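Please study the protein below:
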Amino acid sequence: NLHDEGRPKRLGFTDSEGNLAPADNDRVAALLGEHARTHPGSSGTIELVVLNGCGSLDLGRKCRSRGVPVVVCWETDVQDEAAYLFVRGFFRSLAESRDFEDAFRAGTAAVRSKTRLVLEGARTRTVPFFELTAPGPEPAKPLPSGSFAAGVPVLMTA
């Protein structure tokens, strides 16, 4: 989440001196697209790009428009733990099934499967730790359900 002079958070890389430098989404998408399996005249092998970071939808759309067959990204900000749970569930499923939609469902299920106890008076109840919804202005504050907003993952396919 690189902040760049008032612009929204975005992907950043380190330059040759180790300084954070903003990524140019068009250039990154073009590079990935050149190596995509579907790119005309390319012997590319990329069939999936996973952008497991906040607000990566714009880059995801650009990758799809450049020929990357399948892109997984986040429409919104994402809680770090939710991103970890999602990608772990996604790739575990993908290793078994090689089906991107099944893997996406497994990733979202992994996020939803974490639970927490909520105290209500003298009783406790178990609620999902995360809901797949956009974090509000106070992401550390629970939603009315007692869960926390994880973010909204997106699967883009041809």
Remarks:
- The chain is about 30% helix and 25% strand.
- The chain has a mean pLDDT of 88.
